[in-house]
Structures are given as structure tokens and as C-alpha cells.
Write a structure and sequence with these properties.
The structure is a single chain. By secondary structure, the protein is an all-alpha fold. Helices cover about 55% and strands about 0% of the residues. The chain is built from 13 helices and two strands, in the order ααααααααααααβαβ. It has a two-stranded antiparallel ribbon with strand order 1-2. α1 packs across α12, α5 (about 75-80) packs across α6 (about 85-105) and α8 (about 115-125) crosses α9. The chain is globular and about 55 Å long. About 40% of the residues are buried.
Length: about 260
């Protein structure tokens, strides 16, 4: 099969994954603020540990932006300790809340409605929030039209010869956003579908190409385990569990793993 140019290939990939897997229902969470806190806490740590931290924050009534902002920093750090790097992450949470206060007087909803370019710039200026974290907040908490680029995405695109794999974050993001229909839903589903196929087939140590929805589009050179660890994952196969059980995503709790930089 002759491969299409990379910009034309991505919509083909999206349709193939959508046919194979159906809607993924990302990113379920009780509130926008919980999505944001989870995105920050899950940097470089397993989601099971983030869940412990979120439960502790919820039990203490601190999964609300105003209450967390007024809580002593040491208390927040203690509660999120299971998430690792807890002092650093507590500082990032505090810096984020300070920025919300500076920008909108503490009105998180109004903050998330700021113009996209301005909001993204503010998020990236918060110490401890990198491009993946910022874009996850924009897409999943603010519902903005931004594609999240993680290492799963890089691995798949590199193995398919659509990128080298070492491009700057913004270059890969522009490629995805310019190639796919400009839709929050498509960007949301597209990211989730790439994570799923990476978990099930395009693994770091072993590329299980047989039966992959993208197998027909894979060049021979891509059949090698040369990817890098994913920065975005779904712990314990949460997506598969939802699809198998028929449960409605987002009803109970946030269950997506994100390890952003």
C-alpha cells in the first residue's frame, strides 16, 4: 500500500482507530479543577498514586480552588505526598492558583475562558507546567481546541515515518492540529485513540503490529521497538474496562493517567 503524505495520513489513521475502538470518553472527572489537579499531580508518577492524593484532598475538602488556595502549603503537600515530588507539585498547584487569582480574582471558570493564546501563555509561565500539562488543561478542563502531544503520539508517528521523533513539541502539535479536522471532539478522541493503540500494540519494548488497526499503514522500517516511554497513559486499562462493561465514562471519578512535563 502506498502511504499518503503525512498530513493526509493522519485523518486516515484517525478514522481507522475510530472504527476499531469507538468513542473513548476522555477525560472523565468530577470537576474542571479536579482535572487540572490530576494533570499536575500525575507528572512522573503512576496514576494509582495520584488517586490516593486526590482522595486525600477530597476527604479534606480541598478539591476546590478557593479552599486549596487558602490552605497552608504544608498541608497540601502532606496530602498529595502519595503522588511523589509532593513539595514541588504543591508549589506548582499554589503557583497555578496564584495565577488564577491574578488573572481573574480567583474565578476559575472565567480563567479557563480567557483567549486561547493568552491562557496557554499564562499556563506555560507557571513554574512546573510544561507544554503537555498546559495542553491537557486546555483540552480536557477548558474544552479548547488544542492537541496534546505525548510520547505515545511521538512513538506512533515516528514508527510510521510521519515524524523523525525528535522534533520540538510545537512542531508535532502543529502537524496534528493542521492535519485533523479542527474540532475539540476530534482532538480529544484523537489523543485518546492514539494512547489506546499505543498501549495495546505500539509498545515501547515490543511493537505488536499484527491485528493493529494501523497495521496496513505501517512501513517495514516501523516494525521495531524503538519508542520512548509514554508521557500519557491509561492505568490498568481503564478505557478497555469502560468499553467492556458498558459503564458511562465520567460518572464516578477521574481515571486517566497523564505524566506531563
Amino acid at each position: 500500500m502506498r502511504r499518503a503524505p503525512r498530513a493526509a495520513a493522519l485523518p486516515v489513521y484517525y478514522r481507522a482507530l475510530e472504527r476499531a475502538y469507538g468513542p473513548q470518553g476522555w477525560w472523565p472527572g468530577r470537576t474542571r479543577f479536579e482535572v487540572i489537579v490530576g494533570a499536575i499531580l500525575t507528572q512522573n508518577v503512576a496514576w494509582s498514586n495520584v488517586e490516593k492524593a486526590l482522595r486525600a484532598l477530597r476527604a479534606s475538602g480541598l478539591l476546590e480552588s478557593g479552599r486549596m488556595e487558602s490552605a497552608p502549603a504544608a498541608r497540601v503537600a502532606r496530602l498529595i505526598r502519595p503522588a511523589g515530588f509532593y513539595r514541588q507539585k504543591a508549589r506548582t498547584l499554589r503557583a497555578f492558583l496564584t495565577d488564577v487569582a491574578d488573572a481573574t480574582g480567583g474565578d476559575l471558570e472565567r480563567y479557563l475562558r480567557l483567549p486561547l493564546r493568552a491562557l496557554r501563555s499564562r499556563l506555560l509561565a507557571v513554574r512546573g507546567i510544561g507544554p503537555e500539562t498546559a495542553d491537557a488543561i486546555l483540552l480536557y478542563a477548558a474544552g479548547r481546541r488544542v492537541f496534546v502531544v505525548d510520547a505515545y503520539t511521538r512513538r506512533i508517528l515516528a514508527r510510521h515515518g510521519l515524524i523523525r521523533g525528535d522534533e520540538p513539541y510545537e512542531e508535532v502539535r502543529r502537524l496534528l492540529e493542521n492535519s485533523l479536522p479542527r474540532s475539540v471532539r476530534v482532538y480529544n478522541e484523537g489523543h485518546a485513540l492514539l494512547v489506546r493503540v499505543a498501549r495495546e500494540h505500539c509498545r515501547k519494548s515490543s511493537a505488536l503490529c499484527s491485528g493493529c488497526p494501523l497495521e496496513a499503514h505501517l512501513p517495514p522500517a516501523g516494525r521495531r521497538a524503538d519508542g520512548v516511554d509514554s508521557a500519557t497513559a491509561d492505568p490498568a486499562g481503564r478505557i478497555a474496562r469502560v468499553r467492556k462493561s458498558g459503564a458511562r465514562p465520567g460518572v464516578r471519578r477521574l481515571t486517566l493517567t497523564l505524566c506531563f512535563g
